[in-house]
Amino acid sequence: MKKRYALVALCLALLLLSACAKPAQEEESQMQDPPQQTEQTDPANTPDSSGETDEPEQKTAVFSSNVLEVSESALLVEPAQSSAERASADRIHVRITDDTRIIDLNGAASALVSIGVGDTVEITYNGEIAETYPAEITAQRIAVTVKAEPALVLLTPVEGEWTQADALTGERVTVEESDDAFILRSLADLEHVELARVYYDEKKQDYVQKDLLWMTEVWENGSELAVIEKTPLDGPNLAISWQDEYGERERRLVLPVKVKVGDTLQRRVIITAYLPPFSPVELSAQVDSEGNGTAAIETNAYDGVDAFGFEPTKTEIVCRMNYDIDGCGRKESVQMLRLWDDYDQYSFALRVVKNGVSYDAGVVTGYPGDVVGQYHVQLPRYCPQLWLADLNGDNLVEIYFGGDMASDDYAFSVWTVDETGLKLVMIDGKSYIPARIDAFEDKNIKLEQTIYVLGTYHGTSRYCFGPTDQLEQLDAYWQIESTFALKLKKALPVTMNDNTQTSLPAGTQLYITATDDQSVAFFKTDSGLTGSIAIEQAEDGYSWLISGVSENDYFDVLPYAG
Q1: What's residue 165's pLDDT?
Q2: How far apart are CA 143 and CA 120, in angstroms?
Q3: Engineered SS bond to 201: which of 155, 208, 374, 378, CB 3.0-4.6 Å?
Q4: pLDDT tens digit sequence for 210-222
């Protein structure tokens, strides 16, 4: 069967610019203008110096040129043969400032993105040309007079180390090479397909579309697109995108790479997904104490029981985000579910939809067993928190899910996604932390936890991903900002910051500032003294001993929550 190709004719000229200098020719003699005669003026006819005078008109020069290269703030052009500028240089670097006016082919004000390689433009400038090569000018106005017809695509190689080409799972567009072209082939019916040149925007940290080269409303399964490849430059500049099942654009870079096949180094064209640097995103569910709020979408039933032990009668999506969590090349849908039972009680669950399969989870409140899935999962009843973040910088996003289990008892667990679905991430060897997420700061997460040490306080601590791919605590102690003064009933044995052992007398007022929640609490006094108190857990599991004596023996009042 004869194959039919849609040939994309896009043309991008490759410039080989080598430094060269004009021959310096000195004239044997220079003509000088004759000296001007100074004309005497009558003071009576001299204009009043305090009056307004006409300012000289700004000098301008205009020439036509062909666009050779386009960057973020400049053009490289070739002046027309008939222009005076051609006598200065056959290549001119045109600087574009905030004051430069850009006019599109229709005569409307536009932006630099409307100018493409091969276009004919009319450039207005102040007439001054820097004698470099290429020559340099600053444009006052650039108007597109002729748009170039698209021609051959220019692909570019990846610089740096050799790359092992791995196929993306669940791919919907493939690529193969022929003698003088490469073939893009659809593996599904794709809608609103676009093939475009792109450039890397440093500010946005992303590839931005520059020229739309080819598009179709429907690209049928098995259809092929032949793209002729020219000499490569220094970075990827071609992308293909389509509308995915979520109504969002899904994009791929068409990328030549250096590939090691056995002991042989080869150059191939591949299609790869590109993910810009990921900033932490909170998927919030704004609900009140009655569960009202946040527009919800009913979805497939939750396979399990709610936080109260009943089978849910209704399952809703209250927030979601579609993103390639595991780097497989296709988006997963990360969702927060709200579950209702027959008693109008509600709780929240985590769901990830991957390749059409739903994986549900909550907060793990026990240690995983030897068999995958043998651990207890609880669901938040109130104040759910769902965050997506990449703390370890591996371009694979972690899922942080938690909330209030009951009466300010917060807890959260961390999950990742792989080919088997949801996978639990350990936190300092534990499956969860009894805390709530306060904020994400750079590559760290800041947690807030209720601390029951010599009273009840709110403590904060920072965590990051360590070399073992576990969430590890950065701060040795939970930091506490307390305004409640503890008043001593009797002398309290303490260790001062200079490691001296002493006792604080009865009547001293102190504030708890930090603790490890295990063996020590730090303090400061009204007079500015700082130190630590050695503590030991009592047998009841919630109160503390100091030198073998109950904490209540030392303080007038301890601020316990009810």
Answers
A1: 47
A2: 9
A3: 208
A4: 888 888 999 999 8
